[in-house]
Design a protein that fits this description.
alpha+beta; single chain; Lipocalin; eight-stranded antiparallel beta barrel; about 25% helix
Length: about 170
């Protein structure tokens, strides 16, 4: 092979490789743009759109109404029997999934939490109005007894700082 033919061969192959690389880069850029646009679209809009009104076994219509706790415990890391402390715990669920959760300790101002409920399969998804992160609770409803169990933050000692722990509620319709 002569020097000129080797140069020609290299230039021809270089051009072909350059075309393949340009096409691959174009494909990657277009794919990245499409993925980015999808990500931006999924992050925008109304956050309530991702809530389902029905789960695997229950729906909002099954649990809407007023509930009062017959058992309420919080473990963070010590075990606290909230009702044994003299508290009253209530939960009011509206037909649109909005809720108001209230803990009333004797001699203290009520601790009121609001937000939106929905379902993720067999779990109850909860978005608190004062915290954009979603929490997930185990939920069951048997013979008009509602049981909820999940990780959350509460300020039960009234020091202004919320403690992270596991809340378990057993409730009856009020």
């Amino acid at each position: 092979m002569t020097c000129n033919s080797m140069l020609q061969w290299r230039n021809d192959n270089f051009s072909a490789i350059k075309k393949v690389l340009n096409r691959a880069m174009h494909f990657l850029l277009v794919s990245l743009m499409v993925f980015s646009m999808g990500l931006i679209a999924s992050c925008g809009g109304d956050d309530d759109d991702d809530f389902s009104n029905s789960g695997t076994n229950l729906s909002i219509s099954d649990i809407q109404g007023s509930w009062i706790a017959t058992s309420a415990t919080f473990t963070a890391p010590e075990f606290i029997d909230i009702l044994a402390e003299g508290a009253t715990v209530t939960l009011v669920i509206q037909s649109n999934g909005r809720f108001t959760f209230t803990i009333l300790m004797p001699g203290e101002a009520p601790e009121v939490t609001t937000g939106k409920l929905g379902f993720d399969g067999e779990f109850l998804a909860v978005r608190f109005d004062d915290d954009p992160d979603e929490a997930s609770f185990f939920i069951s409803l048997v013979n008009n007894i509602l049981t909820l169990r999940g990780q959350t933050e509460l300020d039960l000692d009234g020091n202004g700082m919320e403690d992270f722990g596991i809340l378990e509620l057993i409730m009856e319709r009020d």
